[in-house]
Write a structure and sequence with these properties.
By secondary structure, the protein is an alpha/beta fold. 49% of the residues lie in helices and 9% in strands. It contains twelve helices and five strands. Bound molecules: adenosine-5'-triphosphate and magnesium ion. The site of magnesium ion has 4 residues, from helix 2.
Length: 307
């Protein structure tokens, strides 16, 4: 087996985000493909939100969506919730670089976008070429950590209105170029989006992420052991033991499986009962650390609910 550098003691930070061994979420990804297809065909725009607790796999799923969109010829731009509050950055993200800003032409950015998108509007002539070279390439905007939009409530109402308009412009197809804004965040993201009150944004635009079902869960563990660690023998007993503890929760599945893979790399791929005990032990410690962090991040009411 190829000698790899030991990662067995890697910190928890490695248990977040993109993964080389992604499985499951097939219905969601199929629906995402449909959205890309329909939005592109109709040159519309739409906003979708993935919500789930920490470790549910939101960032990993966004990464899959990014890859799929790129394969289908979409331009993909990653934005943060803060981008929405900065008109210049938002214009850049939408593909309109170096355009006049609203203060120079006395129009709000969303107005500008709407005008540029509508060739029938006479006012367009007043803004020479502002958006005439609009790039038609379909655009996927990805926004992780969407719960940070909850700071929306702290902004002055005018600024909030501008952001709301940006979102409306995207969601209600004013740009006449295919745009999907895919956001992901904790459950509080929903309340944040309600503050911004996007018209026609409803249940059908929301995906709630929960556990992985058993087959993908097992496939993730198998890949970490057989592909990453290069073990040739099918690790049935180890997979059985791990799924009893991880119960489909992506963060735990990933963490146990990665630790197991690291252990096996270090130990020449030999699967012994002692080895299994050791990786389970490391996995349990990681799980406790994860829940401790989550409780620390909660406020008093949430902690009482858990009790
Ligand atoms: N479907 C999956 N297949 C394999 N691994 C996954 C899957 N979903 C998530 N993971 C892995 O589980 C871990 C947790 O996932 P991720 O970081 O995406 O969660 P999250 O919901 O974004 O959490 P947070 O809210 O803390 O950012 C990551 O290491 C990720 O690679
Ligand atoms: Mg994340």
């Amino acid at each position: 087996m190829a000698k790899k550098k030991s990662k067995y003691t890697r910190a928890g930070a490695f248990d977040r985000g993109a993964t080389p061994y992604f499985h499951g979420r097939t219905a969601i990804l199929k629906e995402f493909d449909n959205i890309l297809f329909n939005v592109r065909a109709s040159r519309k725009g739409t906003i979708h939100l993935i919500v789930g607790d920490s470790g549910a796999g939101k960032s990993a799923l966004l990464d899959q969506c990014k890859k799929r969109a790129k394969l289908r010829g979409w331009k993909v731009v990653q934005i943060t919730p803060a981008t929405l509050w900065d008109p210049r950055k938002m214009m850049n993200a939408l593909g309109y670089k170096n355009r006049p800003m609203p203060d120079t032409i006395a129009l709000s950015v969303p107005d500008l976008l709407k005008l540029g998108a509508s060739s029938s509007k006479p006012k367009k002539r007043l803004i020479p070429n502002i958006l005439s070279k609009r790039k038609r390439k379909p655009l996927l905007l990805l926004m992780d950590e969407a719960q940070k939009l909850s700071s929306a409530i702290e902004y002055p109402v005018e600024q909030r209105d501008e952001v709301k308009e940006f979102l409306d412009v995207i969601h209600n197809a004013h740009l006449r170029k295919p745009i999907v804004l895919l956001a992901a965040g904790l459950r509080t993201s929903l309340a944040a989006l309600q503050v911004l009150d996007i018209s026609r944004f409803g249940e059908k635009n929301i995906v709630r992420l929960g556990q992985l079902s058993e087959n993908p869960e097992r496939a993730v563990i198998r890949d970490w052991i057989m592909v990453e660690a290069g073990v040739k023998e099918f690790p049935a007993e180890w997979i059985d033991a791990i799924v009893k503890e991880t119960l489909g929760w992506p963060r735990h599945v990933h963490s146990y499986a990665r630790n197991t893979s690291d252990y096996l790399i270090e130990n020449g791929g030999v699967m012994t009962p002692e080895g299994l005990n050791e990786v389970m032990d490391v996995g349990r410690k990681g799980r406790i650390q994860y829940y401790t962090q989550r409780v620390e991040q909660m406020d008093g009411d949430d902690v009482l609910c858990l009790a």
